[in-house]
Structure formats: C-alpha cells, structure tokens
What does this fold into?
Amino acid sequence: MRIATTIFLTDETITPVRLARELEQRGFAGLYLPEHTHIPVSRDTPYPAGGDLPPEYGRTLDPFVALGQAAAVTERLALGTGITLIAQHDPIALAKQIATLDHLSGGRYTLGLGFGWNVEEAADHGVTWSTRRELGRDRMALMRALWTEEPTGHAGEFGSVRASHAYPKPVQKPRGPVTGPRTLIGGAAGPKLFAHIAEYADGWLPIGGRGLTESVPVLRAAWEAAGRDLEQLQVVPYAVLPSAGKLAHYAELGVQEVVLQLPPAGEAEVLRTLDDYAAYL
It folds into this structure.
C-alpha cells in the first residue's frame, strides 16, 4: 500500500520545499494539498467537522504554486490536489495550470477535485450553489477537450471553448472516458457523486475513510453499470489519522493508496509526525 500525505500548508507552517524533500527521502509516496482561495469572515455555512473553523483554512497556500515548488526539488514524489474546487476556477486557465504542472513533474500529478462545502466562498466566485456539481462536470469536459491531442472544441451548458492549440498536454494517456491526469473525486458517498466518478474519473477520494465497507460495493456497482473495468477503479482514503488496524481494513477492501493527515504546523512538529508515520511505510 502506498502511503501519501496531506497538509494545510500555510504562511506559518513548514515550507513546501522542506516537506517535499523530507517525504521523498523518507519513502512516502506523495503529497496532496487542499485549496481555499479565501474564507469570508461573515458566513453561515457550518464547518463540516463541527465546532469552529480552524484558522489554517484561511491561510492556505495556493496548491499549484506550492506543488510546483515540490516538483522542482523531487524526482519520484507524487503530487496532488485534495481538493481542487473546480467550480471556483476558470476552466481554460485551470487546464493550462494542470497540464503545466503534470508536464514539468514528469506525469506525477493527481487531480483530486471536489465541489466544496463553503457556500459563501463559492458565491464570491460567482457559483450558484445548487448547480455546482453540474458546473464542475461541464468544466471537466471543457478541460478534457483542451487536453485532447487534436484540437477539439466544447460547447456546454456553463461554458465553451473553440478547437484550440493548447500545449503542453498532460503526460498520462487517455483511458476509457478519462482524458488528462489521474483524476479522483472527493465527497460524501451517494448516487450523484458515484455517477460523476463513473463518468469522468479514475476513482474516489473519501475523506477519513469511514463507512467504506458499505459504500465501496455501491460505487463498484455504479462503475460497472457505466461500463468501466472494475480493475481500474481506485479508492484512496484521504486525510486519515492512521492505525495498523485501519490500514489493514483498507487493504482488505482493495485499497492501494492511503493519504495520511499531517498537522498544519512548523517544521519540528511535522517532522516528528513523519517519524511516527514511518512505522506504516
């Protein structure tokens, strides 16, 4: 099982360069970074985990800039977003960012994408909350058109692009309905989410990994119903606080990669946590 990590990198934490080098030297498989452009002070949306929203949410580094730094100082470390808030991006610009990072890293990028939880943040980006999933689906289709080898246009409900010259291309070749880098969709289990995964992704990025015994068979059924090869489905539990029993349970479910949560802290605390997590490598 591959053991990757995620962390809220901020202006107060360990740096992307230091962390990436340590992860690669210690044998960890990857680094995934979350995204929040801003957190409106006046908001009604509750924090999904309950209680007060931790301060690191409003201090996150831009994940693509930070991952670019990480790519430049490593050779093998996988790089990912967990998650890219796709509805909050211009898809033409985002397609270029993703393709550039994947190209410069030699194909090491994983696009973890999701639809968000903070209504006020999304609203400032002009997102109508009730349509954010379909908006994200349409933006993925537009980006796939730009990543196609031959100039290909896209005319969707929410956006369009002319057939264009758009290089670089992502390194990974098309597989089934998926064009572009490895793509995992985050979110809570449910028929709508699983339909999106089966339509245009390589798998699921469930936060915390709870309830997988019940939900993974449902996802597999949706995947097969869409004509996808079950051998290709990837389930990657995300932001996990590990234990030996938990990882053994994931392995029994066929999970091949787990993303462990690091504290949003300075260098000393993060490195101590990596020392603790080394037992699971």
